[in-house]
Amino acid sequence: MSTITSAMPVNFTFPRWITSVLLLAVAYLVIPAIGTSYLFEAILLPFLALSLAGLGLNILTGYAGQVSLGSAAFMAVGAFAAFNFNLRVEGLPLVGSIVLAGFAAATIGLVFGLPSLRLKGFYLAVSTLAAQFFVQWALTKFSWFSNDSASGVIDAPALSVAGFVFEGAVGRYYFALTVVSVLTFLVHRLVNSQTGRNFIAIRDNETAARIIGVPVLKTKLLAFAVSSFIVGVAGVLWAFAYLRTVEPAGFNLDRSFQILFIVIIGGLASTRGAFFGAALIVVFPLVLSRLGSFLLGDIFDSGVLDMTQRIVLGALIILFLILEPDGLVALWDRIRRRIGSALRRT
Amino acid sequence: MTLAFGALGSAPFPPDIQEHLAGRDLPPPREDGIRDATNDAVLALVGVTLSFGGVVALQDIDLVARRGEILAIIGPNGAGKSSLINVISGVYRPDRGHVRLAGRAYAQVPTQKLARLGIARTFQNLALFKGLNVLDNVTAGLAHKTRSSFVEQIVGLGRSRTEEIEARNRAERVLDFLHLSHVGERLAGTLPYGLQKRVELARALVAEPDILLLDEPMAGMTATEKNEMAGFVRASRDEFGTTVVLIEHDIGVVMGLSDRVAVLDYGRKIADDTPDEIQRDQRVIDAYLGVTPENEDGEGI
Ligand SMILES: Nc1ncnc2c1ncn2[C@@H]1O[C@H](COP(=O)(O)OP(=O)(O)OP(=O)(O)O)[C@@H](O)[C@H]1O
Ligand SMILES: [Mg+2]
C-alpha cells in the first residue's frame, strides 16, 4: 500500500530540477517580455527581496527552530553595510560590497544569536528583539552610517556589475532575480546536507542531537550566521533594487513580523515556502485595496485599508496555524496530489 | 545534581563549560573493586548517587558492564533505571561517584563526546527527529563522524561527498539489517510507535557503538514486535560485539535475552547476577518479581 501512495505523486510531478528550470525560464524570459513597470516596481521587486529574507529566516526558524524577531535589523545591517562599503572602499565592486554586507549582517546575527545558547523559544524571541531595537537606534543615532545626510535618507548606488549597469525596473529585477536564484540554490544545497540535518535535529530534539554528536552550540551559531547573511543580502536588495533609498525607518519591527509571517504562512522548513509566503504578503494588500475600493468606494481609504489588512492578515495567520501548520507549501502539494490522482482515475 | 540541559529557559552552564568543570572535581579514583580490576569492564559506575530535591533517584550504585554482554536493568517504576542511563550518557550529573569509560573516570560524562566515546543510546520516550525521514534520521546518527565544513557540504565535492555517500550507505545497511528499508522515505513522526522505536535503535546502531544503552526499547509493543526487537538486540550484539545495557519491564524478555541482570529498587541496587540466580533471589522476588508463575522459567517470550 505504501508503495502505491508514494509512487503516485512521482508519476505526476516533474523532477524537482525540471520545475526549477521551467520557473527560471519563465522568470528570465517570459516575465520581462510581458510585464508592466508596475508589475516590477510594486510586486516583483518587493517579492524577491522579501522571499530572500524569508528564505534566510527559514533557515534559522524553520530548520534550526530558533525563533527570531530581529530579521528587519539584519536587513538594515545588510543595506547600510553595503552602502558604506560601496561608499568608503575605493574600487570595491558592488558584488564585493554585497558579499561583505552579508558578512557584516552575519557577524551581528552571530552576536545576537549568542543568547540562543542559553535561551529557548519565547525567551529567545524576546532577546532577538534587542537586535531589532539596538540596530535601529544605532543607525538613527550615528549619522556616520548615513554619510551624515541631513534627512537620514540616502540614495542607493547604481547596480553595476563588471561595467554593466542594471538600469530601470527590469534591470533591477534581473539583478535581484539573479541574486535570489543563486542564494536559493546554495540554501537548497545546505539544507539537504549533513549541516541541514543537524539544524533539524537540534530543532526536533536537542538532547538526542547532542548525544549523536551534533555540535549543538556551533550549529546554532552557524544557523544564526548563515540566516543573517541571507537576510542581510535581502536587505541590500530591498534598499538598492526595490526602494532605491537606504533609510532605517523601513526596517522596523513591523517588517520583522512580516518576514516571520511569510515563513509561517509559506511553510516552515521549506525553501519554496518563503516564496509562497512572500507572494501572498505582497499581493494580498494590493488585491485587498482593489477589492475594497471596488466594493466600498471612497469609504475604503488608506486608513481603513491598513486596518483591514492587519485584521485579515492576523486572521489568516491564526487560520494557518490551526488548519495548515505546514503552510501554503503543504496546501499546494496536497492540491497537486488531488489533481494528480483525479487525473489518474479518469 | 546538575542538569546538563535546562528544560526551558536557561541552563546553568553551557555544556562545554560543564565538561571543563566535570574534569576538575573528579574524586580520587577508587581502586578497591575486584570487578574494577577485570579488564573486560567497558563501563563502570562507582558509588553513583543522584537526587532530585528530596527524591533520591540513585543511591551509591556500583555497576559494571563487561564487553559484549547484555546487561539488563530491571526494577519497579521510579526505581532509577532511566536515571542510571542518563548518568551514563551525561544527561544527568551525579551528586557523588563517577562513571568509568575507556579507562577514564568522569564526574559527568561529556554528552557532546558520547558518540566519539563509542556510546549510543535510545530514549524511553521517543526522541526521533520528526521532521526528517527515516533514512535521514539514521544518517544523522553519524553526525559525530562529519569532518567537512558546511561550505564543503554546499559545494558537495571531495571530502564532504565521500562522507555523505559513506553515511548513506551505512544508514541503508542498518535499515536493511533492521528490516526498515521499506519505510526509509517516510517521515519518522508518521510511523507507528513500534517502528519508531526500531528507527531509534537504527539511529543508535549506525554509529557501530561499543556500548548501546537502550531505555525500554520494547515498551508498548505487541508480543510479536517484542520478540522481533529482542532478536534485533541480540543480533546487534552478536554482529558487532556491542555491549548492551537494556532497561526492560517484561521479565520474560529480560530472562531470555540478558546475560546478567541488575535490579534496582528505590534507587538502590538490590541484586546483580545471572537471570537464573535473580529469579531465585528472595529480595528481588519481594521487591519486584512477586509471584509470576507463568514467567518463572523465562519462557514468556
Ligand atoms: N529530571 C528529573 N527531575 C526530577 N525528578 C526526576 C527526574 N528524573 C527522574 N526523577 C525522579 O527520579 C526517580 C527515578 O526516576 P527514573 O525515571 O530513573 O525511574 P525509572 O526506573 O526509569 O522508572 P520508569 O520505569 O517509570 O521509567 C523518580 O522518582 C523520578 O520522579
Ligand atoms: Mg524510565
3D architecture notes:
The complex is a heterodimer of chains A (about 350) and B (about 300). With about 350 residues, chain A is mostly helical. Chain A contains 14 helices and four strands. Chain A has helices spanning about 1-10, 15-35, 35-65, 70-90, 95-115, 120-140, 170-190, 195-205, 205-210, 215-245, 255-265, 270-295, 300-325, 325-345, and strands at about 155, 160, 165, 245. In chain A, strand 2 (about 160) and strand 3 form a beta hairpin. In chain A, helix 3 (about 35-65) runs parallel beside helix 7 (about 170-190). The radius of gyration of chain A is 21 Å and the shape is globular. Chain B has a domain at about 130-190. Chain B is about 35% helix and about 20% strand. Chain B contains eleven helices and twelve strands. Chain B is globular and about 60 Å long. The relative contact order of chain B is 0.15. Classes of the chains: A mainly alpha (about 350), B alpha/beta (about 300). At the A-B interface, helix 1, helix 7, helix 8, helix 9 and helix 10 of A face helix 4, helix 5 and helix 6 of B. The structure holds adenosine-5'-triphosphate (ATP) and magnesium ion (MG). Adenosine-5'-triphosphate (ATP) binds near residues 55, 77, 79 and 83 of chain B. Adenosine-5'-triphosphate binds near residues 52, 55, 77, 78 and 81 of chain B.
How many beta-strand runs of chain A?
4
Number of helices of chain B: 11
Order of helices and strands of chain B: EHHEEEHEEEEHHHHEHEHEEHH
- Kindly, what is the distance between the CA atoms of the first and last residues of chain B, rounded to a whole number of angstroms? 38 Å
Low-confidence stretches of chain B: 1-37, 293-301
- Examine the secondary-structure arrangement and name the CATH architecture of chain A: Orthogonal Bundle
Gyration radius of chain A, in Å:
21 Å
Helix % of chain B is 25-40%
Shape of chain B: globular
Please list the strands of the largest sheet of chain B in the order they lie side by side: 8-9-10-4-11-12
Bound molecules: adenosine-5'-triphosphate, magnesium ion
Order of helices and strands of chain A: HHHHHHEEEHHHHEHHHH
Which secondary-structure class do the elements of chain B indicate?
alpha/beta
Shape of chain A: globular
Strand percent estimate of chain A: under 5%
